[in-house]
Design brief:
Structural class: mainly alpha
Mean pLDDT: 70
Distance between the termini: 38 Å
Number of strands: 0
Radius of gyration: 16 Å
Number of helices: 2
Largest sheet: none
Order of helices and strands: HH
Helix content: 55-70%
Low-confidence stretches: none
């Protein structure tokens, strides 16, 4: 008998492994490791945070 998944994936919820989240995580990690916050990276992170928040509201 095959194992059934206890948690079913909800298609409405964004995947953690989506490229946007991995890129956002990589840039956040990069800024933490360098202890330097570039204004372009900060602007990019802000735009992505707003987009992510808006996509969760839909």
């Amino acid at each position: 008998m095959p194992m059934q998944h206890l948690i079913e994936k909800n298609e409405c919820q964004p995947s953690i492994f989506d490229g946007r989240y991995l890129t956002l995580f990589a840039l956040s990690l990069l800024s933490l490791l360098t202890f330097r916050r570039s204004s372009s990276i900060e602007a990019w992170r802000t735009r992505h945070a707003i987009r992510t928040e808006e996509s969760w509201r839909i």
